[in-house]
Amino acid sequence: MDSDIFQGYKGDALEVLKKYQVRVWGTTKVETTRGTFEGTVLPRAENDDDKHIVVKIITGYNIGIDIRTITTMEETGYKKANYKIPEKQFPFTPGLPSVKLFGTGGTIASRLDYRTGAVIPAFSPGELYGAVPELADICNLDTEKVFAVFSENMGPKQYMALAKAIGKEIENGIDGIVIGHGTDTLHHTGAALTFMCQNLPVPVVLVGSQRSSDRPSSDAALNLMHAMKAAGTSDIAEVMVCMFGPTSDEYGLLHKGTRVRKMHSSYRSTFRTIGDTPLARISRKEINPIKQHYNKRRNDKEVKILPYFSDKVTMLYYYPGMAADTLDALVEKGYKGIIFVGTGLGHVNKELYPAIERAQAKGVHMYMTLQTLWGYVHMFVYDTGRDMMAKGIIPAGNMLPEVAWVKLSWILGQTEDPEKVKEMMLTPVNDEITLREPYNGYLVYQGGVPEVEDFIKDVHK
Amino acid sequence: MQFNPKQNYIQTRKNIGYVPRLEASQKDYDRIGFMSGLEVHQQLLTKEKLFCHCPAGIYHKSDDYDAELIRHMRPTLSELGEYDGTALMEFRTRKEIIYRIKNENACTYEVDDTPPFPINREALEIALEISLLSKLNVVGEVHITRKQYLDGSIPTGFQRTAILGVEGELELPKKKVRLIQLSIEEDSCREISDIGHTRTYKTDRLGMPLIETVTYPDFVNPEEVMEGCDYIRFLNRSTGKVRTGMGAGRQDVNVSCRGGSRVEIKGVAHSKWIPELTHNEAFRQWALLHIKDQLLKSISEPKNWKIHSMELSELKDVNAEKIYAVNLPGFHGLLSHFTQPGKSFADEIGDRLSVIACLEQPFMMHSEMLEPVLGEEEWESIRISLDAAKEDAQIIFWANEEDVKTALETIEERCQMAFEGVPNETRKSFVDGTTIFERVLPGADRMYPDTDSAPIPLEDEYITRLAENLPVDVIENHKQLLDWGVSSETFTYIFSKNLFPIIEKTINTLKLDPKYIGMFFGLRLKFAEGQYKKGLEFNYNMVYALFAWLVKSDIDIKLAEKMLPELIQHPKMDFASILETIGFKKIDRESILSKIPILMNKFAEGKTEVNPIHQKNWVMGQLRNTALGNINLTELSKTI
Ligand SMILES: [Zn+2]
Questions:
Q1: pTM for the full model?
Q2: Per the domain annotation, does A212 fall within a domain?
Q3: Would B152 disulfide with which of A122, A182, A330, B97, CB 3.0-4.6 Å?
Q4: Distance A267 CA to ligand 1 centre (A)
Q5: How large is the ipTM?
Q6: Which of B141, B447, B454 minimises the CB distance to A61?
Q7: A347 and A274 share a domain?
Q8: Which of A43, A78, A113 is the last residue of a domain?
Q9: Segment A110-125 mean pLDDT
Q10: Confidence band (pLDDT; 50, 70, 90) for A79?
Q11: Which chain A residue is nearest to residue B180, measuring alpha carbons?
Q12: Can you give the pLDDT at residue A115?
């Protein structure tokens, strides 16, 4: 019962609450050596210390009281707050596309959890409608909580479960699918679902928010509107990530699941297509394709669901002077696939060669990707590159490192035949390797350069 | 007799017993139950902003920026699962907010693209010192809270703020004022423009450390509110660690009258504007209560009260806007009812239309305008179309099609509020002492814990150390000045410039006459500051240095009076050069005194009768300039 009455309190602070018989949500008057404080006792975040009691004072602010200064306290009343997102029936509008939203515990729509300070997602159609009523003008919505984990906890099991759930919805004749997802590993999931759900007849749109919807300037509502619109009405039947284009509340971009990457820890416009242009630009009014060629929406249900994943693939981010035993250790632990993330055109130094040879002898599948992210692996230019290829490292073209990891895991979940694996790795499912890089596929503007500054000033960031 | 709006305005002003402020007495304020409290904001003098490492206090012009970005604000649910009233109002206005950013003073934190850095400890410490000076109970742990602002003045949509102390006390010369709390917070953006559905801000001030001292509504007349405000300012400045100058201190003033509601007058830049503003606000509320009484007398079921409107399609507006006529049943004689000097109840509706429905001026006419635009026949035909009764009033407004719905709702809403009395709102102030509607007053519902920041413990040891090094209470200094015989008229200047410590140092270290020094700073310095163009490097410590130098050089300190104007204008000049500029030469007293007999004779020359007083004055006059600084003038006069 303690945990309920004294939510989050532990150690000395818990003892003080027990001693004076004051409960969480109890109103209290506390006498301390620093004066009198009055308010409602709030739950304490579990990771905070056991020396303070949190109180919400009458003006709505929270303060902490040092238990070592308390001379006496008493409970003067009790009022438990009831956190609830207002639920309204999501209206059905004939003629609008039907969209299914899968929840994965991201921060699309949410409220605050006092105890952990964490954000609890709002999820049912009713809750979402209460938070973003504009959604009802875009589609008829149904939701399903596939599992509740935060984005960083998404992994192989979740990818496979999602793939199967997508297959089922397509079987049921849905017009589009949206997956609410934390942003940290959105691009891993984008790649995994691209490989696991092939020949899609409808859009599958991954969406998250960089600012949770408990904040007035959250990107969640607009991202959700864009994602629902893309899922319901766009004719791009691919796995896509839909997030802000600029940091301004203006438009979103639809990125291919295999070419997208989170590029900033906190910006709203953190997702960028690497080595290519995004698929399309989306606003509340319209969807403007950027790429001319993409997989078109179809009326059939001929999707191929391939839910495979090996957990014996790892990545090795190279640094100068990396010792051979780092690679040996991975091989000894039984890893069957290794994605190297090499320098420049795809390099590691000679110190690693003996270990690479030992790995090759054990039949480990090794592929080379790039720390530069942009550009192609090119191992013919220097001798070292040719050496490495001779030792079994296969260049993975312009496949992004995370995508290569996902893909090799997916392949090794199906076969370990080296030739088959290589063929599958190098045959793109959906542009994870492209034949050419357009001149505007690499754009990292350098701030401070006058013409860039002019551009930044003219165009909303 | 025909209804005359102007006469009605004057009559209603008389009916509610309005008196101009300068004629008002405590009796008038007691009659209407005047009540007021303060929220005094003060920027702290730190190098950096509160939650990021951008420099604080660097401002730029509105058209000088490096980038712009756009945000829309959405209301979010409070912890209690409710939307805040202000939040919903702001959402209805459908504003597009544009932020102008300059690299020099704003980073990705200000525009909410980077989470907060740990709180600026320098700012926290200054704020804690002021909390202790304000005799507040200092908290054991600081919890950063998010306070929602949906007007866009902060790009996140909330202000990071934290309570440092509660329940304090401020001693004024004549009474004690209780303090509710003191918080540290980040300053907001400065508004550049707000036109239609677009509001533009600049982000230079955004994020600068600020404190807010909140008093209980203990003030019972307008002068007292001003005095309280000044004292909170003096207290803040006594630390020497707060910013001064335009915009560094601003206050929100809460006012109500008996039976009225708490109304917050926002962003009053000068305390001297407070008396007129609070006076007018209390009477505005008194007038609204009077309107309420009138309405309740004539309308039996306020709950069912509704407006009736129609589009006037025969009238075409040049901007292709829609024109609507609205009938307000039972409001005859109320649109022209006095509310504030020069304003009537119709302005209450108009102000809300402008803010909530974003209508652009001019957008409204009504049947009781003090300076009518339409003739009586035209209103008569509108009345017929609206099927209006004699006791009704009418409004015509024009608006873009998409704003019409909000405009109609706003008119109806404000009229319905008239049955309740005084709406809770924040109001914007004008120099003439009147105010207009700004926003719905937010409630405590808009506070959220900041999940981006960890709580900050304040150990006893640290607080004790801070408490030991505080400046003396303003009220104590106040008493000390009176003891020294310094006139209280100089106090506002002395405390607002935080001159007391320098005065005290000058008196104690140099052993000079306290009254003379006090008055020198309080009067001569103030005068010279107003009179001469101040050199950039000038600071008040130079005045102390001047006295110290005079004492050391054994020159009469009264010479400071002549040197001060030069010092203020040319602070880099050394004191000896200043002396030369004013034509001073060091002459020993003996040679001055030796001139007396010669001059005495010179005065007497050719005169048959010598008036000794005239003679003395003439000799003094001849010697004054040479003597000043070399010999005490009283002593000289005696010798003569
Ligand atoms: Zn900054």
A1: 0.87
A2: yes
A3: B97
A4: 14
A5: 0.89
A6: B447
A7: no
A8: A78
A9: 54
A10: confident
A11: A59
A12: 42
Which CATH number characterizes residue A50's domain?
A: 2.30.30.520
Three-state secondary structure readout of B501-566: HHHHHHHHHHCCCHHHHHHHHHHHHHHHHHHCCCCCCCCCHHHHHHHHHHHHCCCCHHHHHHHHHH
Q: Do A222 and A269 fall within a single domain? A: yes
Where do the DSSP E strands lie in A328-442? 337-342, 365-370, 393-395
pLDDT in tens, A376-419: 999 877 777 788 888 999 999 999 999 999 999 999 999 999 99
Q: Is the domain of A17 the same as that of A153?
A: no
Closest CA to B111 of B99, B94, B103, B120: B99
More confident residue, B552 or B629: B552
Give the per-residue pLDDT at B609: 81
Given a cut of 90, whether residue A126 has pLDDT beyond it is: no
**Out of A377-391, A416-430, B57-71, which region has the weakest mean confidence (pLDDT)?**
A377-391
Tokens of A390: 């001779």
> Among residues A253, A288, A305, which one ends one of the domains?
A305
How far apart are alpha carbons A315 and A285 in whole angstroms? Answer: 42
Give all strands (DSSP E) within B389-502, no chain letters: 393-399, 425-429, 435-440, 447-449, 456-457
3-class SS at B326? strand
- 8 Å CB contact between B179 and B89: no
Nearest residue to A403 via CA among A190, A203, A181? A190
Q: Give mean pLDDT, residues B588-611.
A: 80
Spatial distance between the Cα atoms of B544 and B501, rounded to a whole number of angstroms:
10
Query: Mean pLDDT over all residues of chain A?
Result: 90
CATH of the domain at A413: 3.40.50.40
> Are residues A121 and A9 part of one domain?
no
Residues with CB under 5 A from ligand 1 (ion): B 52, 54, 107, 109-110
Question: Strand pairing of B137-138 and B158-171?
Answer: antiparallel
Q: What is the mean pLDDT of chain B?
A: 91
Whether residues A119 and B451 touch (CB distance < 8 A) is answered with yes
Give the structural domain span for A366. 313-426
Range with top average pLDDT, A110-119, A387-396, B201-210, B375-384: B201-210
Contact check, Cβ <8 Å, B166/A118: no
Q: How many structural domains comprise chain A?
A: 3
A214 within some domain? yes
Inspect the interface and report whether the beta carbons of A216 and B448 lie closer than 8 Å: no
Per the DSSP assignment, residues forming a β-bridge with B593 are: none
Interface check A113 vs B, CB under 8 A: no
Instruction: Residue B2: count other Cβ atoms within 10 Å of its Cβ.
Output: 4
pLDDT in tens, B561-584: 989 999 999 999 899 888 888 877
Q: What pLDDT, on the 0 to 100 scale, is given for residue A90?
A: 83
CA quadruple A396, A402, A406, A409: dihedral, nearest 10? 70
- Please compute, for residue B388, the number of CA atoms within 13 A of its CA located in the half-sphere on the CB side: 28
Query: What is the distance between the alpha carbons of residues B330 and B312, in angstroms, rounded to a whole number?
Result: 22
Q: Map residue A100 onto helix, strand or coil.
A: strand
Q: How far is CA A397 from the centre of its chain?
A: 25
A126 in any annotated domain = yes
CATH number where A140 lies:
3.40.50.1170
Closest residue in B to A265 (Cα–Cα): B114
| Interval A216-226 mean pLDDT | 90
Share of chain B above pLDDT 90, in %: 69
pLDDT (0 to 100) of residue B309: 94
d(Cα B640, Cα B624) in Å, to the nearest integer? Answer: 12
Same domain for A255 and A172? Answer: yes
* pLDDT tens column, A292-343: 999 999 999 999 999 999 999 999 999 999 999 999 999 999 999 999 999 9
Look at residue A117 and tell me if it is in a domain: yes
Q: Are residues A296 and A323 in the same domain?
A: no
On whether both A155 and A230 belong to a single domain, the answer is yes
B79–A112: do the CB atoms touch at under 8 Å?
Answer: yes
Whether residues A60 and A163 fall in one domain:
no
